[in-house]
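Hi there,

I know you've been waiting on this one. I reran it after we fixed the sequence typo, so this is the corrected version. Both the input and the resulting structure follow.
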Amino acid sequence: MIENPSTVNLSGKVAAITGGSRGIGRGIAEAMLSAGARVAINGRNQAKGDAAIGEMAAGDNAIFVAGDVKQRADVDQFIDTTIRTFGRVDILVNNAGGSSDFAPVAQMTDQAWQEAGDWILNSAFWATRRALADMLNRQWGRIINISSVEGRQANKATVAHYITFKHALNGFTKAVAFEYGDSGITSNAISPGGVETDLMTQTGPAAAESMGISYEDFKQGYADDAVIKRLNTVEEVGAMALLLASELGGGITGANMAIDGGTAL
């Protein structure tokens, strides 16, 4: 019998989600918990992580592991702790990623460039490399990289580092799909449009200022670019992650799923 996509069952599966204490990562964690998975989330702030675990009220089915994904040792520890706690990792969501110190390329610093590379691309490489060893033991796995509409286009100034490494993340997604497709492991990207998360409220004002516009105009620009004329929601991204994590999603790999309201048509 074909699985009903409205009732995805992830019972027995374990998901590791970077940047999972808030925003899109938190939404995906809650969606996977509701589908029966056990979940490990990562973040830099222990207090916020503890609060998230308490709010999700998942008991022993969810843990928080503090760490900075820009540090390889922290990423390795996150995957290792997930396996040590739950015995396995079946689903990896590379959600953490961002950039700072926004500037045109001629003024962009090495530090800003390198930070974005570690935050977006290298963190996904480190986590995927660590998780693959465990997934290969069972010949089953789901790798989901949270990219961005900016990884499908290049129409904003002062964010070249973010645009570049999100494009690179999409290439990495395809490379992993090609190498491990015959091992029962899929690799896909989700490219959300504008979603007002905690990260956007923290970094968006600086990005807007570097573009010479207000934060409200910055947000409205995403809505204006979309054919649905609104921002996307965390729940919309979470629903796609559930599909890709499910048995029904096993035929999808190497794909970049746009949840951007038609922005990148």
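Quick highlight: The mean pLDDT is 94.

Best,
R. S.
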